[in-house]
User: Fold these one by one.
Assistant:
Number 1:
Amino acid sequence: ARSVLDIKGIYPPITTPFTKHQEVDYNQLEENLQRYSSIPFRGIVVQGSTGEYAYLTKEERLEVVRRARKVVPKDKLLIAGSGCESTQATIQMTEEMSLSGADAVLVVTPSYYRGRMTSHALIHHYTKVADSSPVPVILYSVPGNTGLDLPIDAIVTLSQHPNIIGIKDSGGDVTRIGLTIHKTKQHGFQVLCGSAGFLLAGYSVGTVGGVCALGNVLGTQLCALEKMCLNAQWEDAKQLQHRLIEPNAAVTQKFGVPGVKQAMEWFGYHGGLCRSPLPPLTDPEVKELRRDFIANGWLLPESK
Amino acid sequence: ARSVLDIKGIYPPITTPFTKHQEVDYNQLEENLQRYSSIPFRGIVVQGSTGEYAYLTKEERLEVVRRARKVVPKDKLLIAGSGCESTQATIQMTEEMSLSGADAVLVVTPSYYRGRMTSHALIHHYTKVADSSPVPVILYSVPGNTGLDLPIDAIVTLSQHPNIIGIKDSGGDVTRIGLTIHKTKQHGFQVLCGSAGFLLAGYSVGTVGGVCALGNVLGTQLCALEKMCLNAQWEDAKQLQHRLIEPNAAVTQKFGVPGVKQAMEWFGYHGGLCRSPLPPLTDPEVKELRRDFIANGWLLPESK
Amino acid sequence: ARSVLDIKGIYPPITTPFTKHQEVDYNQLEENLQRYSSIPFRGIVVQGSTGEYAYLTKEERLEVVRRARKVVPKDKLLIAGSGCESTQATIQMTEEMSLSGADAVLVVTPSYYRGRMTSHALIHHYTKVADSSPVPVILYSVPGNTGLDLPIDAIVTLSQHPNIIGIKDSGGDVTRIGLTIHKTKQHGFQVLCGSAGFLLAGYSVGTVGGVCALGNVLGTQLCALEKMCLNAQWEDAKQLQHRLIEPNAAVTQKFGVPGVKQAMEWFGYHGGLCRSPLPPLTDPEVKELRRDFIANGWLLPESK
Amino acid sequence: ARSVLDIKGIYPPITTPFTKHQEVDYNQLEENLQRYSSIPFRGIVVQGSTGEYAYLTKEERLEVVRRARKVVPKDKLLIAGSGCESTQATIQMTEEMSLSGADAVLVVTPSYYRGRMTSHALIHHYTKVADSSPVPVILYSVPGNTGLDLPIDAIVTLSQHPNIIGIKDSGGDVTRIGLTIHKTKQHGFQVLCGSAGFLLAGYSVGTVGGVCALGNVLGTQLCALEKMCLNAQWEDAKQLQHRLIEPNAAVTQKFGVPGVKQAMEWFGYHGGLCRSPLPPLTDPEVKELRRDFIANGWLLPESK
């Protein structure tokens, strides 16, 4: 019987801090990771969409993995986003990230030619990557960024590959997630929620955890929600989930990575600016972001 | 203290049977309703989208309500879809349906001029309708048909109206549903799932029931799922929910009302054809529909 | 050889004026039509989307046709929008509008069940309507309102029906329009632009006219543009077309029917309010609308 | 007075041939370019979307520019796509492509974080790139690939930058194109059509040329169409334009780059396969592609 890496749990897809000259600030990166080590995360994801991977050079992408590996303890998983547009670049990046210390890779759907990214094309792409990858592969569907939903029939086919162990689904369609689980369960395929907004709903239909941008800010609370779900404390879970939806929306659809980084500052992490062209939040946006945390009890109202 | 009509539970949005000359077949309608009376539904919805209300004349819409009222016992709710494009037509239809026996009305978002259907416009529309309605009003957001999602801020405002008691949300975005519940809970606002595909996930975040096209076919099973959710049998609920997603998708997005009606025939109800221009299923579509029920154990495989 | 009604030219899809009690104001309707009689339009369209047909009762729709027929001279065409969601309602409305004086009917795509409105379904619908219609039928594709583009293969098939003489295409995709003309030219099929924003581009690929909301306001100018196109004064046409795009966008996508009606007031027509739920423009919207006319030289700047 | 590079004319955005081991085949690239030299193109575009730039390494992108420069005569323009997701990578690529021989660069909108790519962000991005670029910059909006339309207000602002001389607009919305020209004309801004489907319509509203994937296959015909437009032979232009729509759609939306490459083979160029994950056409797709050329008289029907 095949033994599959267990990826159950909560992960922050960490941000990439930059210096004022827009260079990667590896020291701040390590300090953030050290602070996260006290939270019962299952592991760390580097270079999900929240990590601005699209703005990093190949060398930076690998160096981030190496630095993270130095800090992330061995009993936590280090999952690295290795997706590129071409299959051969993805294969190469996967191999090098594995050599740099990643325990598994997260491979986003290639999407520039989305009109031709049929199930057939995507199955071929992921199969080639998984065939050659030294570490397990996790699929990654994030239609908000890619404009492309990995089709369920492709997921079902790919779930049978021995080196493809799960998917991060950021689309938020819990009906689709339920069906994915239903159709892949005999292969021990593991589904992770790609956002904290539907974490409880995800657990109700069988997801095993989440890779959530909000974990960069409210990681302890997401781990608490996970525990409630696992312990069947559904009423508590519901109350907590409700209070997380607006902050989560604020750091994803509404304000994106600049929102995550701004909120991190308030909670004692290194946030800072994004690389250009991702602009910093405007003052009204910062206020609205803050309101979304205050209104749900995660920050105190400003005294006047 | 205001006493609000309790709408918790499962409802089939019944189909409208037609004779071979495309006239409403009220006898078949009554016979279907009699058969549904043995299922523990909370009530019956007439003239949701599944009822082809868009294809009925005003007189037919009212007569369907009258006939249903004759058959639906007093301890079950009769909810009638009274939405029209204009506010004044909706007001009038609401009043007449109420006089015809409806316990509450379900009011779809007007949508032909969707580019101008701002929160402001929709709040005004629903407030006028609710002000004059003799019975409680339930909002109805069904973006798959209308291309319009009732905005959450409009829902929050409308939830404070004493005669607006809930919403049927057919969009399937459980994050949005959770936030709706979070932001309206102090007003006792009741949220119903508009599709069986996310019924369990809906319960996990606080919905109180569902108006589900699949209820026309597998009503007993939907009521069983409701009971599991209310009794916190989450593992059983998950297994059952998984088996309902494909049949539900088949009778909604994939094959629509013609799919519901075809499946009803297999389960002993009067289905029949839709009014033109809704075409009957093709033979390959019928086969695929059947496969979706067979694959999930709801019909036996054909013997060869 | 079949003789086909020639529909070449420009038409305003007229608005429906209402009294302060939201009743149709037939007198104002007639006065607007009288004013339009001095503009070299080919005819008048009643109950396009601009006519708020979706908000009128059946009786009002017919009465509008009758009143228009009284005022519109015989040498101008009266085209009436007769589309309803069901085939049988459309057939009946078509017949009654014909009896009420319409020279041709404009039939919008049924769209509430748009997921099932396949080419097959739409061909069947239009064929039935055209078979029974006493007057020629013009197809009407307006995806901005219906969320549905009439597929080109359906148009090609329908163009062969002897009683279907053309299409009003409001989608604005001039590539699609060019292909439609290319594939239907042997049947003498006539394509009208459904918006003034691409009138010149339409003529360049072979359209024969336009049914343009902006014609309610700047009808003389649209007829001038038509003449330039027919006389191959392409440079003049380009200059004029450029100045019409912003005002046109303002009275279509941006501000819709309330925008048309507001602008009509400035040009000496009866505009007034729309029926609820279409809200009046806010003050900032009125200012922006006015700016779009001023900036292109159609209104004088306000003196301070 | 500022003297602006004149980019009027037709350009093929050339494909990148690969060897059977998926390495760039520079010899085939040069041979294709030599064949194109007999067509009255204004110049050549390398690494538009048709060039699979998203699948090339940085080194390959530069080498393609160098090789093209060797072959493209000095009197023809060599325009190179230098867009990357981050501003700093785009600046660097622009500089290096300029050093490698590009006469101008074409800069696609960054799009991975499209939810945050506001006008403000895009204006900042392009301004930084144009400030530092040694050669003129051409904007590139291709929503089919990026899911993002460069907003008109951003274009108007950017048109005032002395080093931004035009845009390639592949969206196909000729109303938008007309408005762009209207609002930028005082700055001598030059608009190129990004597809052959609306080339004539584009000329009618003031575009000055086109960068058209179909130019790889039917370059002579596109140049003939250009000449007809410049000579005001509108009737001939219309006939020719009509015959180009279907072949153009086949090598863009329908079959994409694999379609261009397949059709190139039939017309004597090196086409070949795309890099993975772009799959080759299936046999039925090849047949349909061929039909689209045959039906419009560009290839002879197969003899039986």
Note: The two ends of chain A are 64 Å apart (CA to CA).
Number 2:
Amino acid sequence: MFHRSVRIIATGKYIPPTVVTNVDLEQKLNLPSGWIEKKIGVFIRHYAIGETQSEMAAKAIRDALQSVNMTMEDIDCLVGANGAMEQAIPSNAALTKKALGLEKVIPAFDINSTCLSFVVAMDLVSHMVAAGQYRRVVIFSSDIASNALNWEHKESCILFGDGAAAVVIEREDNPRGPKIVASKLATYIEGAHLAEVKGGGTKLHPREYRETNKTDYLFYMEGEKMFRLSMKYIPDFLTDLLKSANCKMDDITMLIPHQASLTAMKLIQRKLGIPDENFMLTIQEYGNTIAASIPLALHDAISQGRVKRGDRIVLFGTSAGLSIGGMVLEY
Amino acid sequence: MFHRSVRIIATGKYIPPTVVTNVDLEQKLNLPSGWIEKKIGVFIRHYAIGETQSEMAAKAIRDALQSVNMTMEDIDCLVGANGAMEQAIPSNAALTKKALGLEKVIPAFDINSTCLSFVVAMDLVSHMVAAGQYRRVVIFSSDIASNALNWEHKESCILFGDGAAAVVIEREDNPRGPKIVASKLATYIEGAHLAEVKGGGTKLHPREYRETNKTDYLFYMEGEKMFRLSMKYIPDFLTDLLKSANCKMDDITMLIPHQASLTAMKLIQRKLGIPDENFMLTIQEYGNTIAASIPLALHDAISQGRVKRGDRIVLFGTSAGLSIGGMVLEY
């Protein structure tokens, strides 16, 4: 067990104003009315129009800081935890520092594990904060999925939305206070190509973009296979995670899953026997917002009063790679 | 000071076989003979042809592991520290796990601060290793610059090469043994757009690629401005870094800079009064290999016997963002 005494002192979010309803998408895709809700349980999602990831991140960060009457002047380090890059170079964190107009000289860098980036960033950065290297850190997740959707692939294009969330953490001096109790990340080679965007990087440069290979630059997902692979490993993974935190599912006030798919989440919930009040669902309102999904759900759980100080919560999910990751923390 | 008792137990490298000489480039670019060497001090660089970053990474990792008779079965965690992404999704680390054919289930994720990714990754991951979360970690940097060069921009296109390096670290139990003594990272907003690749991410999707905007998808650098901005902050930055390590430049056996530009490095060396034997230069052979630059130079310094157990060394450099970063460690 590697307890780290770290307190989440603030959370914030930014959701782009453009709402895309199921009716909008059912018309666009020639789907029968009600098909999308029935298939994936999402009611609406939001698309970023004319906004960048860094601009959205800056708004989520300001929302978090304002809630505790702070500004970026109170922050030591800025960490990006996104699933997508805004530009190939530099990091989203450097661009977000620019979008914030932050002259103060602090470190800015990214941590990337696709949809699990936030959990991995919390895991890594909490060590630095607990050790005293940084006093107060902002971790943000801001993702735009909407411009890399494959409209020929109905199952995935209806699922995603855009959004941003930010969390401020600081060192906790009370050993009985908030802490990260346990964390775990596992990457399974057999899922390396089940969810990907092949193009855009060094392997398939944008100059190679053609009408014939254009889907290589869009999000591709073998949903069914990913689902089966995840379900094969998730129950044991969660058992191990809770065991290393020395607790049982009954001790958990709120399980906050990556909002990947309502069907998959509901199945996990049923399999583990978790009551609705202990299981956070936001996918209906946001869709799957890639890395922003978990911190957005965390923010909503806290601001709706569903998570209170002293509660044990679990952040948990899957990501392209294929990785399964989770964290038990005392809020 | 935040000492972390961590030992570098192995290093390795992989350099793609295709050598590109100054003569090759002078012919291609219609430059007078000898112009490139005089301008930037690089003799040769290597280009990856038909190879991916993950394949190169796998070779560098195997090189490191073989040097200590280990395999990936001995490793707990795989961390990518690159400047460029191979694909938009998933992480380079997940793709490298696949390239290694590694069935063993361990975490794989990326840390990105462009050319400083390796230093930032060492900084973050060493906390986890020192805390006992992972016993033995591979950090790799594998970058392909050659396919995003702007051949109209002579100053930058002649500078870059491709390459990969890997380092294996583990927890050190002897408090007098190897350790990270101090580290520092600083991001300066005024340099956010001095080095970048605007396209390829969510802001400028590959589908927008046109003859008229094609340079937006290539590496852009305001070399002169970057140089002036770096030189403005580097001397104080290094003074602070050494102070936080409680040592002077005389105590440092080897300063290993990011091989950004020979002119800039020579100027820093002269300004700080560092003798040639304490200053590692590899740019002549490799060019600037983005994030692979520092671990490649570290590997060569160790394998050439220029760095020995117990020596104090400094890893140091600048990256797009603009960031300045450094680390003092006892090898």
Note: Chain B has a mean pLDDT of 96.
